Amino acid sequence: MNRKEFLRRSTQLGACCGAALLPGANLFAQEQQPPAAPKPARASCDKRVTQGQDVIKRIVAQLDAKLDPSKAREIMETCGQICHDGAHSKAAEPPSPERVKGFLGWITKSFGPEAVRYEGDETVIAFKYVQNPQGLKVADGYCLCPIMEDAPKGVSRTYCYCSVGYVRQIFQNNLGKPVNVELTDSVLWGGKSCDFSVRVQGKV
């Protein structure tokens, strides 16, 4: 066997040996590394909503247990105000007379001409939640707070004061005046509607 043939065969043998060793080397390297962690399974959307509802229920129960009722209510109203401002941009300037007129027109069209009345130097507006944009109706027992649509039983009445803060922001942004809002009925209170009495200083 000449030198040239010897080198050719040696190269082929080395290549074959190397090819045979590489899989073993790869397996060895894999064995030395910790196994990859399995991808965590995420909870279903329904489960997360249910757990979120239970957490809120417990939080509000603690507000009732540890705070004066007026303070618990204040906290929930502030939450509603923040919720509104997070969903809708705050007006950069007071609403125009046309916007005020249009908003009051929408109120009377939606709830009847008796929805706006005057008591002395106050304008009193009857406002209610009827249904959400997806068509869920309060009359069918749905809370229009997205988190509490199908609220678990036993949620504290205090939770509904969140909607008071939300409604206050609706009216202050559209009327440009401070308003007082009273919640008079709620689906979570056992009613068939969520009703608010809105009082505005002066005539609008």
Describe this structure in words.
This protein has a single domain (47-201), classed as Muramoyl-pentapeptide Carboxypeptidase, domain 2, CATH 3.30.1380. The chain has five helices and four strands. It has a four-stranded antiparallel β-sheet. Residues 1-30 have low confidence and may be disordered. The longest helix has 30 residues, at 3-32. Helix content is 50%, strand content 13%.
CATH architecture: 2-Layer Sandwich
The helical percent reads: 40-55%
Structural class: alpha+beta
The first-to-last residue Cα distance is: 112 Å
Stretches with pLDDT under 50, minimum 5 residues: 1-30
**Tally the helices: what do you get?**
5
What is this structure's SSE topology?
Blueprint: H1 3-32, H2 45-66, H3 69-87, H4 97-111, E1 116-119, E2 122-129, H5 161-175, E3 179-185, E4 194-201
Antiparallel strand pairs: 1-2, 2-4, 3-4
Task: Give the gist of this structure.
The chain has five helices and four strands, in the order ααααββαββ. With 204 residues, the chain is of the alpha+beta class.
Keywords:
204 residues; alpha+beta; Muramoyl-pentapeptide Carboxypeptidase, domain 2; 4-stranded antiparallel β-sheet; 5 helices; 4 strands; elongated
